[in-house]
């Protein structure tokens, strides 16, 4: 299957809509990726600061690396042993306990839910390894007939939408502000997906220290609505 072709365009598109739907039980409603601490400290308090925070995350933090890992998982397809190695690598990239729990709990929930379409590996093949979200997304998207480009856009959008949804509740922002944020950040995601096509695992890494510290501080935050 070519990178940009699918065997069943309409069916694949419908599956993709389900897999990135807010109703899909990946637990995104429970995780803020450290944003809860950033709101409490005043780093994020309106649309402009939220856009700046998310842009930095995608350009220099975990979401950008996750797109690279998702792409590698997509390319591996059904090769379970390389996927297990990639999953271990992705786990090792987590910068804190909360980031680790966030990615594996969401990833494993994603795999369990996607099994309704019979596109997830057999449970026996998954046993003995934790499965971070971008690896789970990459393998499911490929098995579900989603093109590489669409897979990257969908994975990135799921992260972006979850962050904005968290901010709408935490700042708080109104629904219109949340939609304006998504609209402003569309070009960011398009640009980053285009860049990701030429990147490899050697490009995984980050320098988004404020966000990493936010995740660590969140572990001991007095009042918390989110798990991370």
Task: Provide a descriptive summary of the structure in words.
64% of the residues lie in helices and 0% in strands. It is mostly helical and 228 residues long. The protein has one domain: Urease accessory protein UreF.
Which key features would you list for this structure?
single chain; 228 residues; mainly alpha; Urease accessory protein UreF; 11 helices; globular
Strand fraction equals: under 5%
| Derived structural class | mainly alpha
Record field, number of beta strands:
0
CATH homology group: Urease accessory protein UreF
Helical residue percent band: 55-70%
Poorly predicted runs: none
CA radius of gyration is: 17 Å
* CATH-defined architecture: Orthogonal Bundle
Question: What is the end-to-end distance?
Answer: 38 Å
Shape: globular
Order of helices and strands: HHHHHHHHHHH
Mean pLDDT, to the nearest integer, reads 91
Fill in the CATH topology: Urease accessory protein UreF
Largest sheet report: none
What is the CATH C level class, in words?
Answer: Mainly Alpha
Number of helices: 11
Number of domains: 1
Summarize the structure.
The chain is mostly helical and 228 residues long. It contains eleven helices and no strands.
Topology:
Elements: H1 9-19, H2 35-40, H3 47-60, H4 62-76, H5 80-92, H6 97-114, H7 123-126, H8 133-143, H9 148-170, H10 175-196, H11 209-218
Helix pairs in contact: 3-4, 3-10, 4-5, 4-8, 4-9, 6-8, 8-9, 9-10
């Amino acid at each position: 299957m070519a990178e940009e072709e699918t065997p069943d365009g309409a069916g694949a598109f419908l599956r993709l809509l389900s897999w990135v739907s807010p109703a899909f039980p990946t637990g995104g409603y429970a995780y803020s990726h450290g944003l809860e601490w950033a709101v409490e400290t005043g780093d994020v308090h309106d649309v402009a600061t939220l856009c700046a925070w998310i842009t930095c995350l995608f350009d220099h933090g975990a979401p950008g690396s996750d797109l690279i890992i998702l792409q590698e998982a997509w390319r591996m397809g059904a090769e379970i042993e390389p996927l297990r190695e990639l999953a271990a690598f992705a786990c090792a990239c987590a910068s804190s306990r909360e980031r680790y729990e966030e990615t594996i709990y969401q990833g494993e929930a994603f795999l369990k839910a996607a099994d309704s379409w019979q596109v997830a590996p057999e449970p026996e093949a998954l046993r003995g390894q934790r499965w971070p979200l971008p690896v789970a997304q990459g393998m499911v998207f490929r098995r579900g007939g989603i093109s590489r480009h669409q897979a990257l856009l969908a994975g990135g959008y799921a992260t972006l939408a979850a962050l904005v949804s968290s901010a709408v509740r935490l700042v708080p922002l109104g629904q219109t502000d949340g939609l304006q944020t998504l609209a402003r950040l569309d070009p960011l995601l398009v640009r980053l997906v285009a860049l990701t096509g030429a990147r490899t695992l050697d490009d995984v890494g980050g320098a988004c220290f404020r966000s990493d510290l936010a995740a660590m501080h969140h572990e001991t935050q007095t009042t918390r609505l989110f798990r991370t």
